Amino acid sequence: MSSTASGKNGTWRNWGGNVSARPAREVTPASAEELAEAVRRAAEDGLTVKAVGTGHSFTSIAATDGVLIRPHLLTGIRHIDRDAMTVTVEAGTPLKRLNLALAREGLSLTNMGDIMEQTVSGATSTGTHGTGRESGSIAAQITALELVTADGSVLACSPKENPEVFAAARIGLGALGIVSAITFAVEPVFLLTAREEPMSFDRVTRDFDELWAENEHFEFYWFPHTGSTNTKRNNRSAGPERPVGRLKAWFEDEFLSNGVFQAAQWVGRAAPAAVPAIARISSKALSARTYTDIPYKVFTSPRRVRFVEMEYAVPRAAVVETLRELKSMIDRSDLKVSFPVEVRTAPADDIALSTAAGRDSGYIAVHMAKGAPYQRYFTAAERIFTAHEGRPHWGKVHTRDAEYFAGAYPRFGEFTALRDRLDPDRLFRNDYLRRVLGD
Questions:
Q1: Looking at residue 320, what is its pLDDT?
Q2: Would you state the torsion angle of the CA atoms of residues 247, 341, 356, 207, taken in this order, to the nearest 10 degrees?
Q3: Burial letters for 25-43: b for 16+ Cβ neighbours within 10 Å, e otherwise?
Q4: How far is CA 333 from the centre of its chain?
Q5: Alpha carbon of 68 to those of 20, 22, 126, 164, 237: distances in Å?
Q6: What mean pLDDT is reported for the chain?
Q7: Long-range CB contacts (< 8 A, 24+ apart) of 199-205?
Q8: Residues 6+ apart with CB under 8 A from 160
Q9: CA-closest candidate to residue 381, choices 433, 428, 342, 327
Q10: Which of 44, 102, 218, 229 sits at a 20 to 30 Å CA gap from 362?
Q11: Nearest-10 Cα torsion for 350, 355, 361, 367
């Protein structure tokens, strides 16, 4: 286990560039035992403890002036149980590495988000999700986990062992302890056929319920200042495998979606009045395509243009009305929004602080390029989202507090009571947790 100063000049920054912190020290444990020792030592030194993965959260959920745990030595698969169809993986394993390893074993997660740069513990602890009619978030696929608690204990959690902790810690916000390993349900690798197709905003909102019901995974991007969207429908396929050709993938996914899009962001920042025209061009740049591949290659895409994001979950039945209000707000304002708005869905689950807890949910995400002023846009969007009983993604920009969440989550009190029991001295606290959970 190593202990080092943090980053350049001792400063840690997140991927989006909107959060920074200066921890007293960094620790990189290589085992659950070393992690437990780091937690005990921090308590002895009177320092708080937070773990950080790849920094893809846009909130300060991982920021600390105490001990920052870097889990990049806690990587790799511990065990594959083919009878139970589970895989146990170290908490610091990047999703990309897990997906590649599972594919080599002929296995796959059921669902994924749209990027795979995060660590498994960072992604699950903040409620990262993809889109699905019946398949939920990455955390909903957890069957067991290992948690290092405030007293340095290593706690095994599952529906049968410490079930009350398991029920909450799958999306634990880093408030209950530090996850050291996760067991996921997996299945034999399968094929998905993806159909990407431009569609008008009016059509996609009119037919949203039908598009959702007819597809295992449906999502779309709406381009503000236009009446255009780009839709994506993913469904299981018997094959054969027909991936996107290498040249076509480079041109569409790298050159257009990253290279040209990045240039458009630079132009938009330099000349905001040009943003609506750029949006109209961007909305027509990608043509329809169909391809068939293994799941992670369909669910995920390269995202190299850095941004800041806000995302709220609203009841699925309220998605269309919420989106129409968002469009109306942008159309009436002088805002210049250069990033598409992303819309996805998830089924209800039973995780205490999941944004889909107890209700089928639709997700609406708004973005702005890194370094661009986003506060006015996000404030106006948040006002609309909260009017529809929205629950913000724990790792994305929002201004909600414990009072709001106590009304938004029926099991909020259950979670905070468990926190009181597991971390009475608030070893894992920081300013973000103080705001969203109370002190």
A1: 98
A2: -90
A3: bbbbbbebebbbbbbbbbb
A4: 29
A5: 12, 9, 17, 27, 44
A6: 93
A7: 199/228, 199/229, 199/230, 199/231, 200/227, 200/228, 200/229, 201/226, 201/227, 201/228, 201/229, 201/327, 202/227, 204/229, 204/231, 205/320, 205/323, 205/324
A8: none
A9: 327
A10: 102
A11: -160
* CA end-to-end span of the chain: 31
Residues 171-194 pLDDT 10s: 999 999 999 999 999 999 999 999
Short-list 163, 90, 409, CA closest to 155: 163
Residue 152 zone, left/alpha/beta (φ > 0; ψ -120 to 50; rest): left
Spacing of C-alpha 388 from chain mean position: 21
State how far the Cα of 150 lies from the Cα of 176, in Å rounded to an integer.
8
Instruction: Please give the pLDDT value at position 248.
Output: 66
From edge to edge, which strands make up the β-sheet containing 154-157? 77-81, 86-90, 178-185, 142-148, 154-157
CA distance 425 to 427: 6
Give all strands of the β-sheet with 361-369 in edge-to-edge order. 289-293, 191-200, 228-237, 217-222, 341-346, 361-369, 307-315, 391-392
What's the rounded Cα separation, in Å, for the pair 41 and 264? 49
